[in-house]
Write a structure and sequence with these properties.
Blueprint (H helix, E strand, L loop, with lengths): L2 H12 L5 H20 L5 E4 L6 H11 L3 E2 L4 E2 L2 E5 L6 H11 L10 H14 L4 E5 L2 H4 L4 H18 L3 E5 L4 H5 L2 H6 L2 E4 L10 H14 L4 E2 L6 H12 L3 H17 L4 E2 L1 H12 L37
Parallel strand pairs: 1-6, 1-7, 4-5, 5-6, 8-9
Antiparallel strand pairs: 2-3
Bound molecules: adenosine-5'-diphosphate and magnesium ion (MG).
The site of adenosine-5'-diphosphate has 17 residues, from helix 3 and helix 12.
């Protein structure tokens, strides 16, 4: 790839779109913040979605909108973003908070000392909202007792700080709430970042809209040929599992082919090749959503790319 090609890919990768579940989740987060600012009322939110549905990107857009302000006397951090590291303990979660609050020695002290320091610093920086990303990491390795502890810690933290808290993570993070009743009562608001939640719009239609918006951002035109848009919508749905990350992987790969071969137009057969190359090497024939003999079913069985909770290919 030459320099210009890198620029084209960079621009396409940075493209971000306001598709319905992304907007709904973003609005819900902002509503909690506004409600808190206007009334002091504290509500929390659990936001779940499979990997690649745009949760971390959403946090980034919220942070851009409510950025940290560096002042002479102190930093103001309206929204505190804390990604939970893999296999985290409670101490690890507190450390992430400390790190982002500018604590000079985030790993120092016992868990309760770290937590107390995080609370103090968060107050000092006028934090108005907590975003815990990858919340599933807190309980991934936990047997129930660990989950109780984490739940109790979160409960104590949010009670102490009295600011809205958003937990983001894979759908299995719901289990964290299941084992802790008190926490469950604090996170009654729950949103799934998934296409297909609007009862009036077919999921295929939403997939097609997202596909077309992204395809329009490509420097090479996409042409579905003889295929109807509704059939394309269904194929795109199965080829991406409705996750924005896979739409991008698929189209980036098709673009790469197109540029390498100086094509004027991209077609469904380029998507077929792109699916095998970038999403699933075994995805050929009936297992390739863009092949004419495709089965029209979800590719979520064991070993398939969209197996629930699996580390899908093309994932960041
Ligand atoms: N709103 C969006 N518009 C376009 N692309 C997006 C959007 N949100 C996410 N993406 C793409 O999907 C990829 C995965 O998103 P990410 O936010 O990391 O998902 P998650 O945190 O749910 O696993 C990102 O690298 C980005 O390229
Ligand atoms: Mg993420």
């Amino acid at each position: 790839m030459n320099h210009r090609d890198f620029e084209v890919f960079g621009a396409f990768d940075a493209e971000y779109l306001l598709f319905p579940p992304f907007v709904a989740a973003s609005d819900a987060i902002e509503r909690l913040l506004m409600q808190f600012r206007l009334t002091g009322m504290v509500e929390n939110l659990l936001l779940t979605g499979e990997s690649g549905t745009g949760k971390t990107t959403l946090c980034r857009t919220i942070l851009q909108k409510y950025p940290k302000q560096v002042n002479v006397d102190r930093d103001v951090i309206p929204v505190l973003f804390a990604p939970i590291p893999p296999a985290a303990t409670i101490g690890g979660a507190a450390e992430q908070m400390l790190l982002r609050l500018g604590d000079p020695a985030p790993t120092k002290g016992t868990t309760s000392a770290k937590t107390a320091r995080a609370v103090r610093l968060a107050r000092g920086c006028s934090v108005e909202m907590l975003l815990f990303d990858e919340a599933n990491h807190i309980q991934d390795r936990g047997r129930s007792p660990t989950q109780y502890h984490v739940g109790d810690w979160l409960k104590a933290l949010t009670d102490e700080l009295q600011i809205p808290c958003v937990l983001l993570g894979l759908p299995r993070v719901e289990a964290l709430l299941r084992v802790n009743e008190q926490l469950r009562r604090r996170f009654t608001r729950q949103i799934r970042m998934e296409l297909g939640q609007d009862p009036d719009v077919a999921v295929e239609t939403e997939c097609l809209q997202l596909f077309n918006s992204l395809a329009h951002a490509l420097p090479i035109r996409f042409d579905p040929g003889n295929m109807s848009w509704s059939e394309l919508g269904q194929r795109v749905r199965f080829g991406t599992d409705g996750r924005v990350a896979f739409f991008k992987v698929l189209l980036s790969q098709a673009l790469r082919f197109g540029m390498a071969n100086s094509l004027d137009v991209l077609t469904v057969s380029d998507l077929e090749e792109a699916f095998t190359a970038a999403i699933w090497p075994q995805g050929v024939g009936a297992l390739n959503p863009f092949h004419q003999s495709f089965d029209f079913r979800r590719l979520d069985r064991t070993g398939e790319p969209f197996e629930r909770g699996a580390l899908g290919a093309g994932r960041r």
